């Protein structure tokens, strides 16, 4: 019984501290020329299957033809996900740099 409790504790601690942040970059045109950026949160429920809001990256670019879109799940997004895990909310940060 002690081994099972120890294994469960190791699994719990590693699932909290060994989480990774994922990031996806999309380059539109030749990519961002400056450092002006706009950020928005995309919220999903049901394990990321159903979006709660719509983040329009093209509208965030404001008519620019060359920009970079970075979609990432950061450590803070992971912390939010831990506390909202009962209702399976998963936040994602979308950043558009022009």
Give the termini separation.
57 Å
Name the poorly predicted regions: none
Spatial strand order of the main sheet? 1-4-5-2-3
Q: What would you report as the Rg, rounded to the nearest angstrom?
A: 18 Å
Report on the biggest sheet: 5 strands, antiparallel
Number of strands: 5
Question: Number of DSSP helices?
Answer: 3
* Helical fraction: 25-40%
Approximate strand percentage: 25-35%
Q: In sequence order, what are the helices and strands, one letter per element?
A: HEEEHEHE
**Cα shape:** elongated
Give the mean pLDDT. Answer: 83
Q: Which class best fits the helix and strand makeup?
A: alpha+beta
Describe this structure in words.
With 98 residues, the protein is of the alpha+beta class. The chain is built from three helices and five strands; from the N terminus they run H-E-E-E-H-E-H-E. A five-stranded antiparallel beta sheet has the order 1-4-5-2-3. Strand 2 (37-45) and strand 3 (50-51) form a beta hairpin. The radius of gyration is 18 Å and the shape is elongated. The N and C termini lie far apart (57 Å). The model has no long low-confidence stretch (mean pLDDT 83).
């Amino acid at each position: 019984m002690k081994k099972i409790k120890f294994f469960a504790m190791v699994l719990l601690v590693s699932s909290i501290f060994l989480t990774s942040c994922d990031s996806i970059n999309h380059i539109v045109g030749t990519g961002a020329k400056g450092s002006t950026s706009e950020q928005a949160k995309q919220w999903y429920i049901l394990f990321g299957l159903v979006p709660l809001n719509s983040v329009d990256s093209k509208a965030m670019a404001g008519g620019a033809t060359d920009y970079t879109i970075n979609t990432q799940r950061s450590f803070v997004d992971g912390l939010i996900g831990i506390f909202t895990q009962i209702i399976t909310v998963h936040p994602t940060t979308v950043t558009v740099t022009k």
